[in-house]
Write a structure and sequence with these properties.
alpha/beta, 20% strand, 10 strands, single chain, binds tricarbonodiimidic diamide, globular, six-stranded parallel sheet
Amino acid sequence: MPVIHAEPYAFDLAAQRAALLIIDMQRDFLEPGGFGSSLGNDVSLLRKTITPTQKLLAACRAAGFAILHTREGHRVDLSDLPMAKKLRGKPQHMIGDVGPMGRILVRGAAGHDIIPELYPLPGEPIIDKPGKGAFYATDLEAILRSRDIAQLVVCGVTTEVCVHTTVREANDRGFECLVVADCVGSYFPEFHEMGLRMIAAQGGIFGWVASADAVIAALPFNRD
Ligand code: TIU
C-alpha cells in the first residue's frame, strides 16, 4: 500500500478507495472583483493554492482517482438560504445581491462557478452545497458510498471554513481525510496555520496533513 509522508504520522493510501475532493475553488472566492475581494480580502492568499492543486489534480487524473468538486451557492430564488446566513454578510454585499460577477453565490452566476484553471472534466461530479460543509444537504455521501470511497484527499478554500467543516463532517462519517497543506488556503494566514494544526493535533483528531508533492510521490500511475 503506498504510504504518504504526513502529519501526525504516515498515511496509508488505499488508492482504489480514495478520492480527490476539491472544495469551492470558485471565482467569487479566488478572483479579484469577486465576493471575497469585495469584502476586503486579499485573494492572492487563496490564489497561491492554484498551481499546486493543478499539479495534484493532473496527477490524480493520471492515476485514475475519483475526483469530485464542490461549489458553495444557493438557488436562484434563495429558498435554501437561511436568513441567519444571509444577514451575517456585509449589508452592501449580501448573498444574492448583484456583484461584479453576477449574483453573489447564486447558482448559474459567473462568480459562483469554478475557476478555469481547475475546471472539472465531464464525469467529475460537482456537488452544489448551500452550507459550508459538503455533506450537509447534498448527495456527496451517497456518491462516495456508491463508489466505495473510504479516503478523501482534500484541497480547496477556505482552510478554516469550508475545508474544515467538510473534513469534520467526513471524519464523523468514517472517512479518512488527508488535507493537502499547500492546496488549501485562507484569507487569514493565522487561521490557515491553526486550521492545519487542528486537523493533525491529538494524534490526527480530524485527519492527516501532507504536501501536494508528498501525495503525488505516493500515487500509483496507470491504474485501470
Ligand atoms: N468556501 C468557503 O470557505 N466559504 C466561505 O465563506 N469562506 C470564508 O472564509 N468566508
